[in-house]
Design brief:
162 residues, alpha+beta, Ribosomal Protein S8, Chain: A, domain 1, three-stranded antiparallel beta sheet, 4 helices, 60% helix, 12% strand
């Protein structure tokens, strides 16, 4: 009886060892596949970012950089227009100047797109200033007309009714 129990326990130990050895083999194979996938991905060139990015990323793409200065009022409009034309750019605030000026860096190879963005931005910016000026002019004209009219004199007549 003792011998049978010992044989059964030895068989159980061998079976669990085989299972754990198989399990370990599967784990090692999974690790090897994972490492191979990582190595394959490391050799693939990463796609560069598009649109707004840091200056370091823009310069790191190795295509040269050009610069344009903007004031604070038009930054939001500039983002919209640059996104529309698909231009890669980076913005840095120049704090040494009062009021602050924003330096916008572009890829040098995007020169045609940059010219389109800048012309669209300037037309929009100038149009906005023109619209503001015309509203002020209209307001001033309305004030002058109101002064010329003066106060209206209302005449009231009371008639005696019997």
């Amino acid at each position: 009886m003792q011998q049978e129990v010992e044989e059964k326990s030895i068989r159980l130990a061998v079976r669990t060892t085989e299972i754990s050895a198989r399990g370990m083999l599967r784990i090692l194979m999974a690790i090897k596949n994972h490492i191979d996938e990582k190595r394959a991905q490391a050799h693939l060139p990463q796609e560069p970012r598009h649109g707004r990015q840091s200056v370091k990323e823009l310069i790191g793409q190795g295509q040269g950089v050009t610069r344009v200065d903007l004031d604070q009022e038009g930054i939001r409009d500039f983002h919209k227009i640059a996104k529309k034309f698909g231009v890669d750019y980076a913005i840095i605030k120049d704090k040494g100047v009062e009021p602050p000026v924003y330096n916008v860096f572009f890829k040098a190879r995007d020169e045609d797109a940059i010219n389109k963005v800048i012309s669209a931005y300037t037309t929009k910016y100038l149009h906005r200033q023109h619209v503001k000026a015309s509203v002020i002019d209209k307001l001033n004209k309305a004030k002058e007309v109101a002064k010329e009219l003066g106060k209206k004199v209302v005449e009231r007549h009371k008639e005696a009714v019997r």
